[in-house]
Amino acid sequence: MRKSLKMLVLLVVMAVILTICGSAYAATVNDFKDWGVADVQESEGVHTIKLTKNLTDGDPKLSQDLIINEGEKVILDLNGFTLQGYTAGCETILVNAGAELTIVDNSAGKTGKIIPATGAGDVQLPVIRNNGTLKIEGGTFEQNDAYGTIINWGTATVNGGTFVQEEDAKWSILDNKGSLTINNGDFDGAASFWMVRNEASLTVTGGDFDSTGKANMIGSIYEGESLPEENNVTTTVENGTFDSKGGIFVVYEGTDLAISGGEITSVQSNAVYNAGNTTITGGIIKSENSSAIQVVYKEGEETPTVTISGENVKITSAEGNDNIVINNPSDTTNVAVGTDENGNTVVGEAEIIVNDLEVTVGETVTLDVTVKINGTEVTPENMTIVSSDDEIVKVNDDNTITALAAGDAVLTISANGVEKQINVTVAEKAVDPGETTDPEDPTTPPEETTDPENEAVSGEDSEIVQTGDYIYIVVAILVLVVLGNVVYTIKKKHNK
Fold first, then answer.
1. What is the DSSP letter of 224?
2. pLDDT at 204 exceeding the cut of 90
3. Backbone φ/ψ region at 98: left (φ over 0), alpha (ψ -120 to 50), beta
4. Which of 132-136, 191-195, 368-372, 376-380 has the lowest mean pLDDT?
5. For residue 418, what is the domain's CATH number?
6. What mean pLDDT do residues 237-255 have?
7. Is the whole model's pTM more than 0.85, yes or no?
8. Per-residue CA distances from 187 to 103, 141, 149, 173 (Å)
9. CA distance to 413, 443, 448, 452, 461, per residue, from 436 (Å)
């Protein structure tokens, strides 16, 4: 009896589980064939399900939770009809690991749809859950109040189709946790939530993305330590058109964004919100009412980086706004923007490299200042130098400095929005031991005097001065001799 009771309880629990997960009325490829709701063909191991009527209204044979099992390869042709999930709270289509599903709509009007079941309350699973390989070529996918349109844990490729996110939608149109490539398609969002939530690898080569909601369009909701450990969150944008009332791309700490093309326009917010790592080599990036790019550093997190290079980049911001605005609340980490020798824009952790100085009174020098951002040397911009004592070290208009008096001063150098302080020691000017100085003014050389006859410098015993003295002596002697002879001749005549 107890054994029978346990078995009964087990069966009841299994029934509840199956009902909740959508397996109670889960359809397989053969079911579609047996029920006469689709034309099912098989060729070389690939089953093609071509709908022949709308599968809606909650009838287990009219609306289905389609499961593609491991090893199966299926092409689902909506053929202009609508496939609606049957079990409230479960996926309309489940692609298991090892299975492959391609969705097309070969109807003339391209009116085929896949929509979720209704009446599930607050919690809904996505319209399609992919754990295998999913390829979408066409069809319309409506989210309504479902928990997303597609959640991808495997490999998914979108080459076409229309994806609609209603205003009351509770989740993203696309939620990627595997590898997702979007080559084309129309994506229309209206909810206050991400249109595309990427937690792994996303590549966009085309498509038209429009959002009237205030939420950001594409990004990860996790950052830093909260990111799943095994996930390497990377978004690569090669082309496509992105228009949003709110922000476009969100790059949190630990995530990467690479943009090489496309037209990206935000009406009210930033086209790129970066707290991680962003590289831009092409594309049009625009904000109509703000700065195109906002770089945000949060205390305790890694320093965000942005590199913008190439001639194919055009960045436009609202009038009066810088193209790149830096939000840097940290007092210890310097986040700045600069331009390297190749004209590339670099944003990241900045440092000013300049050494302390020892100079002499009267000396004028140019400081050797280097600015590096992320280790890359950039051109110093808006550089200013301020001296702590203008009577010791004066800063000239051309940012050279002149030592005026012996002592110590501190120079504060600012460039690219960051600062560095250095010490300057000024020494007295050394005196040459052979130099004669005025005792009253040691810095003034002795005055020069000249002899009126030979213009020799009186303060020096030059050869010219010495030769002149000898001539005077000889002349004097000759004069004395002549005078002596004259006196002697006169006296001799007188005695006679």
1. G
2. yes
3. left
4. 191-195
5. 2.60.40.1080
6. 94
7. no
8. 17, 10, 11, 8
9. 41, 10, 12, 23, 15
Strands (E), 149-247: 150-152, 155-158, 162-165, 174-176, 179-182, 186-189, 196-198, 201-204, 208-211, 218-219, 234-237, 241-244
Determine the Cα–Cα distance for residues 315 and 329; give it in Å rounded to an integer.
25
Q: Are residues 382 and 477 in the same domain?
A: no
- Structural domains in the chain (count): 3
Residues 351 and 334 sit within 8 Å (Cβ to Cβ): yes
Both 63 and 185 in a single domain?
Answer: yes
Assess whether 334 and 376 both reside in one domain.
no
The predicted pLDDT at position 435 comes to 57
Domain co-membership, 379 together with 343: no
Instruction: Write the CB contacts of 478 (distance below 8 Å, at least 6 apart in sequence).
Output: none
Q: What are phi and psi of 325, to 5 degrees?
A: -115, 135
For 1, counting Cβ atoms within 10 Å of its Cβ (0-12 exposed, 13-18 middle, 19+ buried), the class is exposed
Q: What single letter denotes the amino acid at residue 289?
A: N
Q: How far apart are CA 478 and CA 257, in angstroms?
A: 107
Q: Does residue 161 share a domain with residue 50?
A: yes
* 62 DSSP 8-state letter: T
Digit-coded pLDDT (tens) for 95-140: 999 999 999 999 999 999 998 877 545 445 678 999 999 999 999 9
Strand partners, 352: 371
The rounded percent of the chain whose pLDDT value lies above 70 is: 76
> 187 Cβ partners below 8 Å, 6+ apart?
163, 165, 173, 174, 195, 196, 207, 208, 209, 210
**Domain limits for position 193:** 19-348
Separate counts of helices (H) and strands (E) for the chain = 3, 45
DSSP-based three-state secondary structure for 464 = helix
